[in-house]
Amino acid sequence: MTTGSLLVADLVIAVLATAAWLGGGAASAARRRPLALGLAAVALLATLARAITITALARAGWWFAAEKILIAGPLSLAAVGVAGPRLLWAPGDIRAVALPLLFAGYATSSALLVTILHGYPASAGAGLLAVAGVVAATVISGRALGARPSRTVSRVALVVAVAALLTGTGLTVAPGAAPAIPHGHGPPAARIADEPTRRFTLTAGTATVDAGGRIVAAWAFNEQVPGPELTATVGDVLEVTLRNRDIERGLTLHWHGYDVPNDQDGVPGVTQAAVRPGQEFVYRFRADQVGTYWYHTHSASDVGVRMGLYGVLVVRPGPVTGLDVTVPVHTLAGRPFPAPRVEQAEAGVPVRLRLINTDSTTHRYVLAGTAFRVAAVDGVDLRGPTPLVDTAVLIPAGGRYDLVFDAPATPVALFVDGRAVYSTGPVSTVTGAWPVLDPLGYGATAPVPWSRFDRTFTLVLDRGLDLRRLLPRYAHTVNGAADPDIPPQVVRLGDVVRFTIVNRSQVVHPWHLHGHHVLVLARDGEPAAGSPLWLDSFDVRPGEVWEVAFRADNPGVWANHCHNLAHADAGMTLHLMYS
Ligand SMILES: [Cu+2]
Q: What residues are neighbours of ligand 1 (ion), with CB under 5 Å?
């Protein structure tokens, strides 16, 4: 069982235990003896089963089990301790066990709320709030059931509840001690002095676009979605003038995966101000990385990219040889975009398909009709890629895979999630059951270039209630905090930095660090066994633990965030900062 499914199983069992305790309490209050005893038995069994899931989660990593052991554990023990003996005595009047069963239900449900609303790390505040809730609910239920606790018991309960509530609330809402990110734009950009060799102008504006036969509203660069394909040869100096005609929310250009100088990175409020209607901004950087990249707005990025403010950036080592095709996959107005492309390929011609996932979720790609190799991932060539046949690849949000092959005499077709997006003729193959390539075991290994790490950071990805804003929100969190309250990771120039990224949540988080490619060291404790993988976008699935590392060689303040842009918007963004 994977840790991801253990997390789901544990949640389901916790919900079951809660419902059974509360149902048992209600049934005994209504004097429905068999039902009450049956539900209590289910609750006891579920609590027992939870001991197993929590133990297994703790073995997978403390991050997965912390609050379950520190808060749910004691509360569950209290539940069984209070309700169990009463049930064993099996009183003549079943109504006598109603309050103990309800107490058990409140204890289990408040622990469950801690997991759902607070998550990792477990805090004293959350524990105290949970206890306060249990005490308050039990006292109220006791009154409703006509139980007459002594004055002393009532007063003690009241004092405990109020004290816990105050302390708990205080600890939960207290502002964190996060050092501030230097917002604003610092000294003027230290632009490279060389004359540009490639100049482009991108004018952003509202537009209408044909998405599979339906005319939809879009935001476009130069009236087209995707924007113009920017191509360069390694060594070129690119100058890109961004103009905003009428995008009210403002925009920027971020060069996804391209490790440009910090002031060219296009993160509004961090490396520059958003470009408002009527304004312009000139980007200039040297094309010193070969490969497949893309650009997109980083201002209101969730809606901006979805509406069409993105395009392809390809840097080649020299003149194009053979067929060199970019396939940027997108979902526009809920429809797959663009329309499938069909072209001729003469047998024997070398073909490179540059697959780019510009959406916020993973896509499954299959290439049918030929063997192929994965030549590069996220713009970086792989070492010793071997031929693959009838194999699917999963590309995370923002990620790129370059597939290469020599065109066979018969047609080939590329499918994304079962839909043909590129072909050289009709291909009918059932590809749904093809195995998925694990890039961590593909290609030829090479030793990790570092033996020690100067800094190590752990990022635990989760969900939680964010009360530090005017309106509370159910945020996507890192280490229990949401943007802008997540402390930045501070490094020094030259440091070798290791990240441990843990996904405690129920959804995939495609992780994306700006300004650096990271080398994958291990996943779930298994060292990476294939070609060195230098990534800028990688899916951390529920229950997974990734170890990655990089050398801090590009000074500045860099966004470090989930590339499911809705998650990034809902709190899952932090920053890497050079001291
Ligand atoms: Cu995410």
A: 509, 562, 564, 567
